[in-house]
Amino acid sequence: MSDVTATKPAPAAKGMAGMVISDSSISFVDGAAGILEYRGHDIRQLAEHSSFEEVAYLLWNGHLPTAAELEEMRMESRSCRPLPGEIVTILRQLPNDASPTAVMRSSISILAHYDPESEDNSPAANRRKACRLLGQIAAVLAHFERIRNGHYPIEQRADLDHAANFLWMLNGAEPDPMAAKALDQYLLLLADHEFNASTFAARVTASTDSDLHSAITSAMGTLKGPLHGAAVQEAMVQFLEIGESSNVEPWFIKGKTTGRRVMGIGHRVYKVRDPRAEPLVHNLEMLVNATGERQWFDIARRLEEIAKEDPYFRDRNLSANVDFYSAPLLYSLGIPVDTFTCMFAMSRIVGWTAHVFEQMADNRLIRPQSNYVGPHDLPWVPIEERG
Ligand code: SDX
């Protein structure tokens, strides 16, 4: 048997925890201090002063736009929104009970067939494709939601920004300014987050010199999991299950006895409260003060308080992550729960595409190794002698 012990690599870090894969200048995350920066700008500064479209420009181009650059971006993004008619036909043929996340994953892949530049990996073509996907996946979600409820899709409005236009396409009513602002802030806050699982999946695909639609399809499939992008849906399901603030503590205690994870709590990198939580709470508070419907917000606040006081959670630095307050915010905006992960994708499409640009600009195939722990040099046993 060959001497494999001498070259035995270090034990693998399960889930690549703590591993640094490559340099990036898109987002900075300090998990100990609870800091998130997009291209050097603190997320709280951007949440207070910026907009989702301006942040998309920042993430794609590396700097905040001038007024002229922002206006040009706005004009371009509106021209990119129209969905090929064939896609609407396909959406009509899908099962009404299809998972909206799976519908969006399939649609991203199908949209490649109707994008004349799908096989062009030049930076300029990729930038145009990213702009088209940004508008198109919003239309896919709004149209599918209406079709599955027996309504006609509603065309986009070029006079509305991205968030307000989505609400218009979803509801067919003039979007409430406060709701549009809250959704715009939500989209801004979730636009990028370093090498999270779905972004890393996009980079791995891009590193093979594959195409943008393939990379974003990989990312969308990765976001679908409840440990990542579907946690926001699971978090809302748990709030609905709790039902009212007085039920939070008994629900929490029962969950601990069964080892149930509290969705929206805990993070691989943040060991303090997610810095995106505060701006989300601020917007949610504005909404509930206007609508008077405090139920879900109060449940979330109470659950966060209880988790913070719990020794098991405290000892493991388990704090509220971005999904914990995204869930009641989206619910308060009237967004259907099973589309929350698609809302996450509507924001993260900007980060995913920015990371594809960065990967392709200075690429090397991403190919880690495994630490083989299986047997060696086994003898061949004829099938009649097995078992
Ligand atoms: C997002 O990576 C990103 O940046 C992601 C994201 C982004 O913007 O892209 O921030 C978005 O995906 C946020 C995370 C959403 N997921 C959830 O809310 C699901 C619930 N959280 C977890 O399952 C968990 O915290 C993870 C998946 C987020 C992180 O898992 P890790 O780092 O692999 O930690 P682990 O599973 O090894 O848990 C460590 C310990 C375990 O206990 P012990 O074995 O020490 O006894 O903490 C416990 C876990 O059981 N634990 C939890 C818990 N999360 C971890 N216990 C109860 N409830 C939880 N939510």
Topology, please?
Elements: E1 27-30, E2 35-38, E3 41-42, H1 43-49, H2 52-61, H3 67-80, H4 85-93, H5 100-111, H6 123-148, H7 162-171, H8 177-189, H9 197-206, H10 212-223, H11 231-242, H12 248-257, H13 277-291, H14 295-309, H15 311-315, H16 322-332, H17 340-361
Antiparallel strand pairs: 1-2, 2-3
Describe the structure.
The chain is an all-alpha fold and 387 residues long. The chain folds into two domains: 25-227 and 337-361, Citrate Synthase, domain 1 (Orthogonal Bundle); 231-332, Cytochrome P450-Terp, domain 2 (Cytochrome p450-Terp, domain 2, Orthogonal Bundle), CATH 1.10.230. Helices cover 55% and strands 3% of the residues. The protein has 17 helices and three strands. The protein has helices spanning 43-49, 52-61, 67-80, 85-93, 100-111, 123-148, 162-171, 177-189, 197-206, 212-223, 231-242, 248-257, 277-291, 295-309, 311-315, 322-332, 340-361; strands at residues 27-30, 35-38, 41-42. The protein has a three-stranded antiparallel beta sheet. Helix 7 (162-171) packs across helix 8 and helix 9 (197-206) packs antiparallel against helix 10 (212-223).
Descriptive tags:
387 residues; mainly alpha; Citrate Synthase, domain 1; Cytochrome p450-Terp, domain 2; 2 domains; three-stranded antiparallel β-sheet; 17 helices; 3 strands; 55% helix; 3% strand; binds s-citryldethia Coenzyme A
Low-confidence residue ranges? none
Major β-sheet profile: 3 strands, antiparallel
Percent strand: under 5%
Oligomer: single chain
Helix content estimate = 55-70%
| Strands ordered across the widest β-sheet | 1-2-3
Q: Under the CATH scheme, which architecture of the largest domain would be assigned?
A: Orthogonal Bundle
**Bound compounds:** s-citryldethia Coenzyme A
Total helical elements:
17
CATH class call of the largest domain = Mainly Alpha
Write out the CATH superfamily name of the largest domain: Citrate Synthase, domain 1
Kindly, what is the distance between the CA atoms of the first and last residues, rounded to a whole number of angstroms?
Answer: 25 Å
Instruction: Sum up the overall morphology in one term.
Output: globular
SSE topology string: EEEHHHHHHHHHHHHHHHHH
